[in-house]
Amino acid sequence: QKEVEQNSGPLSVPEGAIASLNCTYSDRVSQSFFWYRQYSGKSPELIMSIYSNGDKEDGRFTAQLNKASQYVSLLIRDSQPSDSATYLCAVIFSGSARQLTFGSGTQLTVLP
Amino acid sequence: GAVVSQHPSRVICKSGTSVKIECRSLDFQATTMFWYRQFPKQSLMLMATSNEGSKATYEQGVEKDKFLINHASLTLSTLTVTSAHPEDSSFYICSAPQRAGSSYNEQFFGPGTRLTVL
């Protein structure tokens, strides 16, 4: 069974610090990887997508993909209290007709 | 990013009634839409894939006769929860990939519908 696993959390970091979120997946040939942010009571919001090995940066967010090790991570620099949310890693497994498989999520709290 | 809307945002109903939830892609066409359910403190679980012009594909364990899906047009999919019971109370969310046929499968989520069955 194809799975996505994330740090159990919860994770707390002080304001201004770097928050590091990790995710592993079970299918070596997967091609599409996503990080979503979900505030309590709201639907997920796409933060980053990454398809190739290496780093992808967008503002304070950096996604890192290592297909050989089957992990994808998200770094949040200069963390702000407004970043406090649950972060969901999602993968489109090969042959899945663009269906997202989500990890269980990591709850992040940024302390002022 | 692309905009997906859902209606209603919140519904409270009595046990045994049916509830229809609409999902619309507002600025793009979506031949495929996805329906998820999320229980408190849990992640999103895919219920079904809605396909314009053909039958929906349901995930294992999801009753197709209870959760009726109709993809009426390239911008509208509906989920009807028939004979709802308290255990169906959940957060229902739809999503759509922005570019049909593209290998870049970014999906955008609707705001969700909070269903409470009394």
Q: Can you summarize this structure?
A:
With 112 residues, chain A is an all-beta fold. In chain A, 0% of the residues lie in helices and 54% in strands.
Please outline the helices and strands.
The complex is a heterodimer of chains A (112) and B (118).
Chain A: E1 4-6, E2 11-14, E3 19-25, E4 32-38, E5 45-50, E6 54-58, E7 61-66, E8 71-76, E9 85-92, E10 100-102, E11 106-111
Parallel strand pairs in A: 2-11
Antiparallel strand pairs in A: 1-3, 3-8, 4-5, 4-9, 6-7, 7-8, 9-10, 9-11
Chain B: E1 4-7, E2 10-13, E3 19-25, E4 32-38, E5 45-51, E6 57-58, E7 67-73, E8 76-81, E9 90-97, E10 107-109, E11 113-117
Parallel strand pairs in B: 2-11
Antiparallel strand pairs in B: 1-3, 3-8, 4-5, 4-9, 5-6, 7-8, 9-10, 9-11
Q: How would you describe the oligomerization state of the chains in this entry?
A: heterodimer
Structural class of chain A: mainly beta
Mean pLDDT of chain B: 91
Order of helices and strands of chain A: EEEEEEEEEEE
Number of strands of chain B: 11
The proportion of residues in beta strands of chain A is over 45%
Percent helix of chain A: under 10%
- Structural class given helices, strands, pairing of chain B? mainly beta
Uncertain spans of chain B, ≥5 residues at pLDDT below 50? Answer: none
Rg of chain B (C-alpha, Å)? 14 Å
By DSSP, the count of extended strands of chain A is 11
The H/E string of chain B reads EEEEEEEEEEE
Output the number of helix runs of chain A: 0
Q: Main sheet of chain B?
A: 7 strands, mixed
Q: Count every helix of chain B, treating DSSP H or I runs of 4 or more residues as helices.
A: 0
